[in-house]
């Protein structure tokens, strides 16, 4: 009789000790304890409970959703322009030998520039409004898309191209039915890189004279030494990164349903 | 034989890549509805010959007559992995009721129940049958088979031989099959050619009815094998 619950208690303990959530949870508890005891001053780092309260307050007041929306628009606009350019250049260079000779060398040179190092120049060119922020995100996201699409097109299986030619497909049909679907997996890898780049560039670009957005929240919190607000913004940035990654996975699952790994899981 | 009756007519065909002459003066005629097997070791030029007939390499200024209605089945099935089986068979086919004809072709190779499957889920034999359906749905006058059964296990290969013969009887295309396998050539073909260093060195016609008993073909088999082996000591 007594062995039953005892065993399940043991099983529970075993399961808890093996859980991957255990150590992060302990860390958060430790953090909370350190702040409460007073080992860590609140001006250095607020307790997780206070961070949660602040987050709730910021959400309820509408301040956080609004800032998030502003930041999201910046990111979306930059990403849209960047991927449009990346796709256009990638298609041109991948499909035409002449465009490749024209486009690839300068793009390969430009891509070695660290995007964030261009910030001063972009401020000189575009001022301190929304334009330099969006332009910087567009610049940073263009390259992963271009490089991956271009390589994807070059990497399309020659045997499949031979097959399609032997069945008399013309150039346009070849591109639509063989080249583009074959390059799609690479393009999506590029999109994934571009999305993480866009979050990174967003964080930095938003620090320049923003009057709205997550970056503005962070800057103001810094001035008032509100570490709780800063941590909330960090969490939001992390969530944004996760969300965009999830978005690409969702697209992949739909667009690449033919791949063996998706066939197995679906 | 009437001149216009030939599906393929190749006269003294030469192909070289830089210094290397791969085909030196190959003449090949394939009659309408004839099943020809082309044997040869790797490097003998058989793939080059097949690519020429498939229209994958152009041959400026040379006499090459091949029909425009032709189809190739490669050793690897070469299905587009992002199209399901039915769409692979259809692949940019022009003309009305393609859907119905593609479904019918899949029935012929016994795969109509898998018409919506992804190629990645097919076995090697199934993929090769889809490739056959894709070739035959176009009603080709010339069917080119590039070692189509080399990657299959013995049992599947035997079944594929029967399938190819029955499809050939039903549709009557001219067939050129490139193969390594002498027994395969003897079981299927009307005529066997041996290619060596860019030249046709042996040609034998087989008149035995199918399905064939290997016994009466023993001498021919030995002769073909000897011709293939003699290439070891040039």
Which ranges of chain B are low-confidence, i.e. pLDDT below 50, for 5 or more consecutive residues? Answer: none
Structural class of chain B: alpha/beta
Give the termini distance of chain B in whole angstroms: 35 Å
Helix content of chain A: over 70%
> What's the CATH superfamily of the largest domain in chain A, by name?
MetI-like
**How would you state the average pLDDT of chain B, rounded?**
89
Please tally the helical runs of chain A, counting DSSP H or I stretches of 4 or more residues: 12
Chain-wise SSE layout:
The complex is a heterodimer of chains A (266) and B (234).
Chain A: H1 3-18, H2 22-37, H3 48-60, H4 63-95, H5 97-111, H6 119-126, H7 130-154, H8 158-166, H9 171-205, H10 214-223, H11 227-255, H12 260-265
Helix pairs in contact in A: 3-11, 4-5, 4-7, 4-9, 4-10, 6-7, 7-9, 9-11, 10-11
Chain B: E1 6-17, E2 20-31, E3 35-39, H1 46-53, E4 64-65, E5 70-73, H2 85-90, H3 98-108, H4 124-136, E6 142-146, H5 154-171, E7 174-179, H6 182-188, E8 191-196, E9 199-205, H7 218-229
Parallel strand pairs in B: 3-7, 3-8, 5-6, 6-7
Antiparallel strand pairs in B: 1-2, 1-4, 8-9
Helix pairs in contact in B: 3-4, 4-5
What does this 3D model show about the protein?
- The complex is a heterodimer of chains A (about 270) and B (about 230).
- Chain A has about 270 residues and is mostly helical.
- Chain A has helices at about 5-20, 20-35, 50-60, 65-95, 95-110, 120-125, 130-155, 160-165, 170-205, 215-225, 225-255, 260-265.
- Chain A has two domains: about 5-40, no CATH class; about 50-265, MetI-like fold.
- Chain A contains twelve helices and no strands.
- In chain A, about 30% of the residues are buried.
- With about 230 residues, chain B is of the alpha/beta class.
- Chain B has two domains: about 5-70 and about 140-230, P-loop containing nucleotide triphosphate hydrolases (Rossmann fold, 3-Layer(aba) Sandwich), CATH 3.40.50.300; about 80-140, no CATH class.
- Chain B contains seven helices and nine strands; from the N terminus they run E-E-E-H-E-E-H-H-H-E-H-E-H-E-E-H.
- In chain B, the strands form two sheets. Chain B has a six-stranded mixed β-sheet with strand order 5-6-7-3-8-9, with helices on both faces. Chain B has a three-stranded antiparallel β-sheet with strand order 2-1-4, covered by helices on one side.
- The longest helix of chain B is centred in the C-terminal third of the chain and has 18 residues, at about 155-170.
- The radius of gyration of chain B is 18 Å and the shape is globular.
- Chain B starts with 5 loop residues before the first strand and ends in a 5-residue tail after the last helix.
- In chain B, about 40% of the residues are buried.
- The mean pLDDT of chain B is about 90.
- Classes of the chains: A mainly alpha (about 270), B alpha/beta (about 230).
- The interface of A and B includes residues 159, 169 and 258 of A.
């Amino acid at each position: 009789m007594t062995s039953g619950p005892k065993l399940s208690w043991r099983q529970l303990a075993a399961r808890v000790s093996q859980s991957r959530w255990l150590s992060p949870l302990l860390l958060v508890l430790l953090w909370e304890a350190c702040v409460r005891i007073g080992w860590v001053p609140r001006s250095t780092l607020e307790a997780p409970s206070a961070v949660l309260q602040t987050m709730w307050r910021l959400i309820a007041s509408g301040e956080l959703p609004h800032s998030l929306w502003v930041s999201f628009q910046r990111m979306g606009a930059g990403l849209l322009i960047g991927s449009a350019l990346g796709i256009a250049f990638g298609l041109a260079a991948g499909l035409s030998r002449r465009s490749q000779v024209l486009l690839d060398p300068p793009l390969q040179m430009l891509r070695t520039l660290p995007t964030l190092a261009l910030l001063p120049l972009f401020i000189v060119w575009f001022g301190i409004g929304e334009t330099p922020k969006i332009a910087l995100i567009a610049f940073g996201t263009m390259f992963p898309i271009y490089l991956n699409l271009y390589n994807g097109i070059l990497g399309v299986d020659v045997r499949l191209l031979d097959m399609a030619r032997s069945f008399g497909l013309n150039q346009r049909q070849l591109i639509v039915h063989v080249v583009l679907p074959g390059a799609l997996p690479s393009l999506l890898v590029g999109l994934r890189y571009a999305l993480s780049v866009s979050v990174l560039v967003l964080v930095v670009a938003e620090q320049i004279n923003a009057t709205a957005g997550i970056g503005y929240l962070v800057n103001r919190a810094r001035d008032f030494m509100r570490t709780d607000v800063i941590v909330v913004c960090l969490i939001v940035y992390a969530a944004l990164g996760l969300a965009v990654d999830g978005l690409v996975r969702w697209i992949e699952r739909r667009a690449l349903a033919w791949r063996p790994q998706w066939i197995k899981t679906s | 034989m009437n001149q216009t009756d030939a599906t393929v007519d190749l006269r003294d065909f030469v192909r070289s890549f830089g210094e290397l002459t791969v085909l030196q003066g190959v003449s090949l005629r394939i009659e309408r509805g004839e099943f020809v097997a082309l044997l040869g070791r790797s490097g003998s030029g058989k793939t080059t010959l097949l690519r020429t007939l498939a229209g994958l390499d152009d041959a400026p200024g040379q006499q090459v007559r091949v029909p425009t209605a032709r189809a190739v089945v490669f050793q690897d099935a070469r299905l587009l992995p992002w199209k399901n089986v039915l769409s692979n068979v259809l692949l940019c086919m022009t003309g009305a009721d393609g859907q119905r004809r593609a479904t019918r072709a899949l029935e012929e190779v016994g795969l109509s129940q898998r018409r919506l499957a992804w190629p990645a889920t097919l076995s090697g034999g199934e993929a090769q049958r889809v490739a056959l359906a894709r070739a035959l749905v176009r009603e080709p006058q010339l069917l080119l088979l590039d070692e189509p059964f080399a990657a299959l296990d013995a049992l599947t290969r035997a079944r594929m031989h029967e399938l190819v013969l029955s499809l050939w009887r039903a549709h009557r295309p001219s067939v050129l099959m490139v193969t390594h396998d002498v027994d395969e050539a003897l079981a299927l073909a009307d005529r066997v050619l041996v290619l060596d260093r860019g030249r046709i060195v042996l040609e034998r016609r087989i008149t035995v009815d199918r399905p064939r008993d290997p016994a009466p073909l023993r001498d021919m088999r030995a002769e073909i094998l000897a011709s293939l082996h003699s290439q070891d000591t040039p």
